[in-house]
Amino acid sequence: xxxxxxxxxxxxxxAFGRHSxxxxxxxxxxxxxxxxxxxxxIYDNQVDLREPKDIADFKPQLIGFSVLSGPNIAEAIQQxxxxxxxxxxxxxxxxxxxxxxxxxxxxxxxYIDYVCVGAGEYLMIELAKHLETGxxxxxxxxxLVWKNGSxxxxxxPGDFIKDLDELPDPAWHLIDVLSYWExxxxxxxxCPSKCTFCYSPLFYKGYSGDLSAERIVSQIKHLYNRYGxxxxxxxxxxxxxxxxxxxxxxxxxxEHKMPVQWDCDSRIGLSDEDIALMSKAGCLSxxxxxxxxxxx
Length: 296
What we know:
With about 300 residues, the chain is α/β, with parallel strands linked by helices. Helix 11 links the parallel strand 12 and strand 13. Helix 9 crosses helix 10. The model has no long low-confidence stretch (mean pLDDT about 95).
């Protein structure tokens, strides 16, 4: 099956393209779909300013949109409608945080056929199987929200992936790696905290999962050897949360003498020893979530 994965970024905001990061969630979904034998393309508006009409000749049968709350909703709506006109019969699915948190509101739109709540890798495989063969039935696909005539159906929740090492490496070959301002990796998902201001408790519901230190170093080696990447942005909420993994990763970077520098985000609480180890392993900066100067 031909599947198009879309990151509907704000194309009319020039600065956004200059500060682009890899569409990591789509890269993982694409890798899993390719492993299952599907033909996949990624249309990332952060760096690709073509219009849907310029991509329609690929003739995908399923188009998946990664949608966050905020300004890029406008592009997601516009492009979904355009693809529906350009490709009669194409099926569309929205996933990521916004549709996962507001599935009923999202599926109510006529131009959206399905909503993915939670992780998308294995759900997309099941949905593609259904569209090709009729099995499994839509009702059997956990995490899927769909329409049965005029009725809205919300299936049982899907499971988040416990061991991220079971996933193949992201499908970097489907993007122009060097056109991105920041070459980024996503090596952890979820968060054990329950901060009321954050999307994570609503989306991940307490789940957290990590890629192993070995896989992180392996991915960095590939990006360095294949594309000449010398700086990595860990674009995720909890890169330093698992201190054992953080230390092992740093030790491996030092041991392998990796000529790659990096930065990440973290909560307050890194020890002086951890900071020194991170610096020795190539870390140049850390974004800290101060949140507030008031204990209350």
